[in-house]
Amino acid sequence: MQIKSAEYIGSYVHLEKCPEQHFPEYAFIGRSNVGKSSLINYLCERKALAKVSVTPGKTQTLNFFLINQTWHLVDLPGYGYAKISKRMRETWSGMIKKYVRERKQLQYVFQLVDGRISPQKIDIDFAGFLGENGIPFVIVFTKCDKLNSPETQKNIAAFKQAMSEQWEELPPMFTTSSDKKIGRESIMEFIEAANAAFR
Ligand code: GTP
Ligand code: MG
User: DSSP for 143-173?
Assistant: First the structure.
């Protein structure tokens, strides 16, 4: 897919305030610091569309981007950031859960998982939440700078194994590195196909 335009639309806290356009939508989520903003910039071929943060937990709103005037990409706040208060975490959780459950235009959640570490309970749990609620999602392994390294392969296999313990069927999975520019094409093809199927 060629990116002809990519623009920031706005940041929202309430589902009711999110853009009303009937555009297919893809929401990116994952543990804080997993590389969401970097991946969004890489996919959209823009240097600073989404803000890459040095401090984890920076994104606290639903950030909307309009791509090629026809589809929405949404940068969701990262989960599992230890340094925020319990109250903040609950607000976060309420906002995200409401959005993913009720947003009609949402085609897929892109759940990002750090390919450099072994499976984390919080990631398996979040995938479980999506599955239980019947929300279509895919897994994107990030920071796979050395795609064929035994370490990366081991982490991915272990993640699949952990998911298989709960699910009969696994979601589509992609391996990426925003740093080394790996994995863009298959994700964009996936989005293109989903856009074409959108009614
Ligand atoms: P929050 O919005 O704060 O939750 O973070 P985020 O998930 O948007 O992550 P962000 O893109 O801001 O990246 C976090 C850190 O990971 C930055 O220091 C990035 O430079 C680094 N990073 C992102 N992608 C890659 C990658 O593909 N490889 C490597 N090695 N580092 C990466
Ligand atoms: Mg971010």
Answer: --SSTT-HHHHHHHHHHHHHHHTT-SSPPPE
| Residue 145 Cβ < 6 Å to ligand 1 | yes
Q: Edge-to-edge strand order for the sheet containing 25-30?
A: 6-12, 62-67, 71-75, 25-30, 106-114, 137-142, 173-175
What angle do helix axes 184-197 and 36-44 make, rounded to 10 degrees?
80
Cβ of 63 below 6 Å from ligand 1: no
Encoded tokens for 139: 């897994």
CB atoms within 10 A of CB 111: 24
pLDDT in tens, the chain (199 residues): 999 999 999 999 899 999 999 999 999 999 988 999 899 999 999 988 887 655 555 557 899 999 999 999 999 988 876 666 777 777 778 889 999 999 999 999 999 999 999 999 999 999 999 999 999 999 999 999 997 889 999 999 999 999 999 889 999 999 999 999 999 999 999 999 999 999 8
Q: How many whole angstroms separate alpha carbon 50 and alpha carbon 57?
A: 14
Ligand 1, atom 4, lies closest to the CA of 32
How far is it, in rounded angstroms, from Cα 83 to Cα 86?
Answer: 9
